[in-house]
Specification:
Blueprint: E1 15-19, E2 27-33, E3 36-47, E4 59-65, H1 73-89, E5 98-108, H2 113-128, E6 136-143, E7 149-151, H3 155-160, E8 163-170, E9 176-183, H4 187-215
Parallel strand pairs: 4-5
Antiparallel strand pairs: 1-2, 2-3, 3-5, 6-7, 6-8, 8-9
Length: 219
């Protein structure tokens, strides 16, 4: 697999999205990728406590809520990954001394929850109207027991996978901005998954354009 792989070679899980899913938030989105579903709300810029204020940028808080209700240590780490991803994309210097809260609710998890949550967060941020340096797209891969890389694995493939890899790319140059992996995999498998995911991210960005055009009266 080469870096010049064509997105037409790949097929992602069917994606469906509704913006403005929540009436009392500044931006919201509900996104399904296959049978995996996430709901995200964005509130802000808001007034926050003095100890959290910064004269250089906004304070970003990300809350990741599981369907079970009780967060685990891996859930907190996913929360950290999502916060870093969103923080890099938001032009926080435009909102000094304020806070922005991104709340992510897991509705269904049949594999690829992290990538679905990140993509849903990006759509909710777009819906909120916050200034962003770029939009971002997440794609997940699985490495099976014999070392083959599977793009956008099914629930069964995730269950039997030796490793799960998640990649997030920016919309400008498709640079890798976040990578999150679980399990054991070879360097060759990582490079193959990275190339496949980078090419497939075009499909996610195309989906974003379709959704934003549908909900916007300007574009």
């Amino acid at each position: 697999m080469t870096e010049a792989a064509d997105s037409k070679e790949f097929k992602l899980k069917h994606m469906k999205c509704e913006l403005n899913a929540l009436s009392k938030s500044d931006g919201s989105a509900i996104l399904s990728q296959g049978e995996t579903v996430a709901l995200v709300s964005v509130n802000g810029p808001l007034d926050i406590k003095v100890q959290n204020q910064s004269i250089e940028k906004c304070y970003l808080e990300v809350l990741f809520c599981t369907k079970g209700g009780r967060p685990s240590v891996p859930d907190r780490y996913k929360e950290h990954v999502i916060r870093q991803t969103c923080e890099m994309a938001i032009t926080g210097s435009l909102y000094p001394r304020t806070g922005i809260t991104v709340t992510i609710q897991e509705l269904e998890d049949y594999g690829g929850l992290l990538s679905c949550a990140i993509n849903c967060a990006c759509l909710a941020l777009l819906n909120s109207g916050l200034a962003m340096r770029y939009v971002f797209a997440a794609v997940s891969c699985a490495v099976d027991e014999v070392g083959n890389v599977v793009l956008e694995p099914s629930y069964q493939e995730v269950t039997n996978a030796k490793a799960i890899l998640n990649f997030v790319f920016d919309s400008r140059n498709k640079n890798l901005i976040t990578s999150f992996s679980e399990g054991i995999f070879s360097e060759a498998a990582y490079e193959e998954a990275l190339a496949m995911s980078r090419a497939a991210s075009d499909l996610v960005f195309s989906f974003y354009r379709d959704i934003v055009t549908k909900y916007s009266n300007v574009i």
